[in-house]
Hints:
With 176 residues, this protein is of the alpha+beta class. The chain has helices at residues 23-33, 36-49, 83-86, 110-124, 131-143, 156-174; strands spanning 20-22, 51-52, 56-58, 89-96, 101-107. The strands form two sheets. Strands 1-3-2 form a three-stranded antiparallel β-sheet. The protein has a two-stranded antiparallel ribbon with strand order 4-5. Strand 4 (89-96) and strand 5 (101-107) form a beta hairpin.
Amino acid sequence: SPITSYPELPLITPPPPPNLLPYKEAVKILNTITTPSIAKSVFAVLFAEASKNGQAFRSAGGYNYAGVQTDVNNNGRSIRWGEGSSKFIKARYVRKDAVRKREFAVFENDQSFLEFMVSRVISKGFNGNNGDSWTNTYINKWWSPADKAQYTKGTTKFNQKLAIYNSSQAKYKLYT
């Protein structure tokens, strides 16, 4: 089993069942808890990262639509999400990801997960009103690959991420 960064939280076994968060519901909640720019940013990050099922995001369980992890990272460093974000994590569970067993966060409901995401997106300085700005922040501060300096405006990878942002905003607008 993975080493936890949150030993104080209960470990749920077996893992909680998957959840669906309809896009319409995500947009509605986001627009009640944050600014339009941050709401659009969170929706775009989820559109880039989350599994999808029809017109909904799909979690592996525990209202965790972004694969938020609670275990120790590959370098053996304990990662905690900061007070503003950690308060939304209610429990944890273990599930195999692509390669090995990992520990994932459990949230109380869709809103507490989205509040966690708002907190993370604000901390990274996202601007959801501008595609180029969102894409730069996504590449450099969210995805953050080792060779991120080569993914500048106009490159194929930048354009792929910008296309995700643009697709997300077309969906977002359907529900605002």
